[in-house]
Write a structure and sequence with these properties.
This protein is mostly helical. Helix content is 79%, strand content 0%. The protein has helices spanning 2-26, 35-43, 48-72, 76-100, 107-119, 124-148, 153-159, 166-196, 204-213, 218-242. It is globular, with a radius of gyration of 18 Å.
Length: 246
């Protein structure tokens, strides 16, 4: 049940990031278009602190479920994937806990600080470049998964017969593709930070989305990406219901 809550939490965060990105694109507001930016906005709403505590529990549950999955799934690549995703959700739960306790943080500043520290290490540029390539790979896989509808496998068994609605399928397609594009841009920025020895260029998802918005016809691209994040959030919430593995 906690893992199901975790899927809903992931959906809420993606919807919030998409909304912030949409406001940036249309010039109607701003904020940091990242998980920490979404949490800051939630914390500022009435009852936001209580919601953040619930979100923390959900993310911990989803993280532990993913790690447990790594021990029972037969395929080696699936074991690695589940373990990595589990660690990511557990790390995200610590950020949520920070906001739930009344604190604050910035994903962009964290990313720049970590990049700066690693760049100063022996072989640091190689490590950051590899990280950038991995992030690009994650983005490319997301685009592939959305375009080929491979994500439906995560839902159809739980729907018992493939009764997943077209609205959820479209949400997953657009969501995975838009999110994949954002990750690919983020990976390129990380590599660019390595080439220029400028850690500020690797300042997280907010910087990646703003980079998309600064391109020719960038407003249109950023609006598409923002809507994609919102649709991915809807897909994630649907997954809380349909996934057969929870």
């Amino acid at each position: 049940m906690a893992a199901r809550v975790g899927f809903v939490v992931s959906g809420i965060l993606h919807i919030m990031i998409g909304w912030i990105a949409f406001r940036i694109a249309t010039g109607s507001g701003g904020g940091e278009a990242s998980n920490s930016g979404a949490m800051a906005q939630i914390a500022a709403t009435p009852g936001g602190q209580i919601l953040l505590w619930i979100m923390t529990v959900g993310l911990v549950g989803l993280g532990l479920w993913r790690i447990a999955e790594a021990f029972v799934t037969p395929e080696a690549k699936d074991k690695v994937k589940s373990a990595i995703v589990g660690v990511v959700f557990l790390a995200l739960s610590f950020s949520t806990l920070t906001f739930a306790r009344g604190g604050s943080s910035s994903d962009g500043k964290k990313a720049s600080s970590i990049t700066s520290t690693v760049l100063e290490m022996p072989g640091g540029k190689i490590l950051i470049a590899l990280a950038g390539l991995i992030i690009i790979g994650v983005g490319a896989y997301g685009i592939f998964k959305g375009a080929t509808k491979r994500f439906k496998k995560d839902l159809e068994a739980g729907a018992q017969g493939g009764n997943v609605g077209s609205a959820i399928t479209i949400s997953g397609m657009v969501g995975y593709i838009a999110r994949g594009i954002a990750f690919a841009v983020l990976g390129i920025m990380v590599i660019w930070a390595t080439l220029t020895s400028d850690p500020s260029k690797a300042s997280g998802m907010d910087a990646a989305l703003r980079t998309i918005g600064s391109q020719p016809v960038g407003v249109v691209l950023l609006i598409f990406t923002a809507l994609g994040f919102i649709l991915y959030g809807i897909y994630s919430i649907a997954r809380a219901k349909y996934t057969n593995e929870v």
